[in-house]
Amino acid sequence: MIRLEPRTNPSQAMIILTPILAVLATMVVGGILFVTLGKNPFEAIRMIFWDPLLGEHAFYYRGQILVKAAPLIMIALGLSFGFRAGIWNIGAEGQFIMGAVIGGATGLALYPLNSFIVFPLMIVMGALGGFLWAMIPAFLKIRFNANEILVSLMLVYVAFNFLIGMVTGPLRNPDGFNFPESRSFQDFPAAHNPELWAGTGIHLGVLSTLGFVILAYIMITRHIFGFNVRLAGQAPRAAKFAGVSPNKMIAICLGLSGALAGMAGLFEVTGPAGKLTTTFPLGYGFTAIIVAFLGRLHPIGILLAGLLMAVTYVGGDIIQSQLSLPKASIQVFQGMLLFFLLAVDVLVNFRLRISKRNSK
Amino acid sequence: MDISIVSLLATLIVAATPILLAATGELIVEKSGVLNLGVEGMMIIGAICGFIAAVNTDSPLIGFIVAALAGAALSLLFAVLTQYLLANQVASGLALTLFGLGLSALLGHRYSGIRPPSSPKMEWFGMAELPVVGPIFFNHDMMVYFSIFLVLMVWVFLKFTRGGLVLRAVGENHDAAHALGYKVIRIRILAIMFGGACAGMGGAYLSLVRVPQWTEGMTAGAGWIALAIVVFASWKPWRLILGAYLFGGVTILQLNLQANGFDMPVSYLSMAPYLVTIVVLVIMSSDRTRASLNAPASLGKIFHASS
Amino acid sequence: MKLLKTLMTGAALVVGLGGMAQAEDKTKVGFVYVGPVGDFGWSYEHNEGRKAVEEAFGDKVETMFVESVPEGADSERVMTQMALDGADLIFTTSFGYMDPTINVAKKFPNVKFEHATGYKQADNVSIYSARFYEGRSVIGHIAGHMTKSNTIGYIASFPIPEVIRGINAAYIAAKKVNPDVKLKIVWAYTWFDPAKEADAATALIEQGADIIMQHTDSPAAMTIAEEKGMYAFGQASDMKQFGPKARLSSIIDDWAPYYIARTQAVMDGTWESTSTWDGIKEGMVGIGDFSNDIPASVQASATALKEALMSGATHSFTGPVNKQDGSAWLASGETADDGTLAGMNFYVEGIEGEVPN
Q1: Which one of A278, B58, B88, C130 is most buried, counting C-beta atoms within 10 A?
Q2: Are residues A149 and A295 in the same domain?
Q3: Which residue of B has its CA nearest to C40?
Q4: Is residue B131 a part of any domain in this protein?
């Protein structure tokens, strides 16, 4: 019989080992999946993991990995504080959209003003948009005890419909032949978020993300707020006695994650996406939740997890065009990766004990 | 402006059935203390598996049965992760959704563009001919009536049977239930599988009756709505019906208004169901005593028998 | 021994070079789709075009494709990927790929790009689209004859010129043969969402429509029409298997002739940046077979209309036609010019309701 025995201390070795174990397990089972689809598993796995990093065109792909990873990491950082404290913001996608819409609208309203103040203002408004959108579930939870998971989730759909209403109406590009999209930010240099060094994919969002990783690390390990968050998650009553106000915690955590998600949305829409359209939201708000967990809610872990997810996205495109595999195969692959990571995570806090049944 | 109320009501019942089925299953899961956010994944697996089975056997009934089994099988992954491997329930549920969406798309790759066998409407001794009540209540396919029957069964189970009592006990305080000798993990796994089966059937209803067709991602958020409806219903079975019909109704109403030339900004109309859900959620939750009496106290907490 | 080695090396070189030369000979064509190829609509038909290219050129061509590519950065990456992998010609099949196509084209001046339904050209970027509105005229003509309730239901996606053109063309043709006909329009705000399309079709039928037209991509509406015993027209693909009784006819996107021609041009070295807007005449817009339910006289007149559109004797938008607000648009005998059609954002007289925003 296999039993799980709690460890007295989380195993340091396992913390490092488990992600590697999970990736290996995914490669094996994923390989089997590719065989059933009639493809060479080694080729497929190589294309997913190796090519984007060190393959023939990796000089281009590496930049794309950063582009894909940056919003995931930025949102996940914000979410991690709330998740540690037991505050579940599932509506990051909605905050992402609202940040992009409000920040983007600010910029478009100033068109064609060519001033250095435009982009910083848009960033602030983007953060504000996401912040306010996250404040709705926060307020409703504090005041009415409404479940923040469901409120924030419903607001994702509201935000999405708001986006459609905006791009088919007030924010529609007047020079765009009536198509439901805003003016392209490429045509508006003061509001554009371009690659800073050609071919690297690094835009301001990427740099900001790196900065936030460092900030989050300092906060969670050294700042009193980080301590309070961890305390609130692990021992809520003790936290209360220590003077941590649960309402304040709710407001700050949701607000923080909303602001970061909104900023990520702004960077995304002014850079990689290029304009506000009905289809620019790609589910980063949901994928970031997974990244947050993969990274064990720790800033450095989130950084690595975000990069790993991004590699699977880029690699996924490669196997689609090179091996004619359907897009669904990479989704299954990503789901498997997550499952294995969650499964082997148990080894960090528990030890496997194989014992024979004693007959007494 | 003449909107046919009769056909509106009839259509909304059909629209609400998938989410009603999924929500009923999730209610049992949550009553046992587990929060399964993977409803969307289980629904869509049910949709494709049910579709494949129905097309290959030319029987929608077999389709629904297979869908239930498929949903239950997928939920088993979630059950193992959260109950044996003690993984975080929120993350595991989301992983289930992601995996389910991908797997269903992969399975269904060759099934796009096929018509499934149609589900016959039930004849209630000709009561469908009655004016007004006929088309609204008596002219539906079997699964609509089954979904209501399911709610009834769940209500009876929770309220009147010992099994229901045990389930609720596990959901309220799993440590106490364990101390009393109840097999918490086993009960939760059974509940999770039931939830998976119901979600699977709900998904199959979409692909076999409501649309009826298979397409990638066709659940389009129905799983999340089902989750909301469980809270909306304060974890009480009969309120599930109200919630599902309300939500389905607002969605259908918007389309009918448009078809009548009612000039409303479409996207704002589309927000209505979600906003209404939030408002009702707030109202339901703000009565703290009532809400706390109904939400299972151990909801979402990890249980590990340390004996 | 040394001689043998030299011979072997020489042979290897020849084989190697020969192999390389053969690789150089193959023309690589890439396709970027916005939806799944299984949608039985827009992306499905583009993929059929790709298959036709493979069939036409056999070993001389190698195609690759990626489906469900979101617009924006992802599409830029996919296009760049294809270019890096040696594509000579890339088809980007959605309006939203416009800026990404231009961006990538700048980085790869030797690769040719073909962008569907856009309006930005470059030295190595062509644009192409189809005069679907001609197809709408034909099915509008049939619908006008076949409707008994005088109500045609129209499931529209987004209020962009292409969709509004289709609505107007269908209405004008229907009204010509049936002055009492009315159009009920539902805006789905999506190109592809079978559940929503099914609901929209149901709502329209409940509101009295007995014929459904759609400008969305799935066969859901056809399936609902079949279930409720109404009529519908296939969109982008024939959709006969979804509505054996319901399908009256269809508008079929046929990209094969254009795709084969452009690939040939790349192979011959004669490719130039062009702007193509082809219709029934050039084979880009096909009309599906007529259902037996359509009376012989209507079949004959519909065929005549189709031939007239092909020969240019008739234009879908021929005056006298007024705008919805009553102001004059086309004088008697006058036809609409391509510029107005490209930016069309108004209904013609007789259509009820407003164009959203």
Answers
A1: C130
A2: yes
A3: B113
A4: no
Per the structure, how many domains does chain A have? 2
A71 with A137, same domain?
yes
Work out the pLDDT band at C178, boundaries 50, 70, 90.
very high
Same-domain pairing of A166 and A22: no
Interface of C with A (CB under 8 A): 30, 36, 64-68, 70-74, 76-78, 80-82, 84-85, 95-96, 99-100, 119, 158-161, 189, 342-343, 345, 356-357
* Residue A116 pLDDT: 85
Are residues A108 and A178 located together in one domain of the fold? yes
Q: Which of C151, C196, C202, C213 should we substitute to test contact with B (largest number of B Cβ atoms within 10 Å)?
A: C202
Instruction: Show which of residues 43-72 on chain A sit within 8 Å of chain C, judged by CB atoms.
Output: 56-57, 60, 64, 67-68
* Nearest residue in chain A measured CA to CA from C103: A186
**Domain C132-245+293-342: CATH architecture, name and number where available:** 3-Layer(aba) Sandwich (3.40)
Count Cβ atoms below 10 Å from residue B268 Cβ, excluding itself: 16
The pLDDT tens digits of the residues spanning A183-231 come to 888 888 888 888 887 777 788 889 999 999 999 999 888 888 888 888 8
Of C76, C96, C357, the CB nearest to A279: C96
- Secondary structure of chain B as H, E, C letters: CCCCHHHHHHHHHHHHHHHHHHHHHHHHHHHCCCCCCCHHHHHHHHHHHHHHHHHHHCCHHHHHHHHHHHHHHHHHHHHHHHHHCCCCHHHHHHHHHHHHHHHHHHHHHHCCCCCCCCCCECCCCCHHHCCCHHHHHCCCEHHHHHHHHHHHHHHHHHHHCHHHHHHHHHHHCHHHHHHCCCCHHHHHHHHHHHHHHHHHHHHHHHHHHHCCCCCCCCCCCHHHHHHHHHHHCCCCHHHHHHHHHHHHHHHHHHHHHHHCCCCCCHHHHHHHHHHHHHHHHHHHHHCHHHHHHHCCCCCCCCCCCCC
Model confidence over A239-248: pLDDT tens digits?
778 777 888 8
Work out how many domains chain B is built from and give that number.
1
Which domain does B73 fall in, by range?
Answer: 5-121+136-294
**C153/A353: higher pLDDT:** C153
Asked if residue A54 belongs to a domain, the reply is: no
The answer as to whether A31 is a domain residue is: yes
Q: How confident is the model at residue C24 (pLDDT cuts 50, 70, 90)?
A: low
* pLDDT 10s digits, C346-356: 888 888 877 77
Option in C202, C206, C227 nearest B118 (CB) = C227
Q: Inter-chain contact B259–C241, Cβ cutoff 8 Å?
A: no
| Of A159, A149, A36, nearest in space to A98 by CA | A159
C25-130+255-278 has which fold?
Rossmann fold (3.40.50)
Q: Do A144 and B286 touch (CB under 8 A)?
A: yes
Domain assignment present for B18: yes
Listed by start position, the domains of chain C span 25-130+255-278, 132-245+293-342
> Domain for residue B306, yes or no?
no
What residues make up the domain containing A187?
63-322
ipTM of the complex: 0.80
- Interface with A, mutate which of B274, B280, B293 (most A CBs under 10 A): B274
Q: Are residues C223 and B115, on separate chains, in Cβ contact within 8 Å?
A: yes
What is the average pLDDT score of chain A? 86
CATH assignment at residue A278:
1.10.3470
Same domain, A12 and A115: no
| pLDDT of B290 over the 60 cut | no
Query: Do A26 and A78 fall into the same domain?
Result: no
Residue C1 has pLDDT above 80, yes or no: no
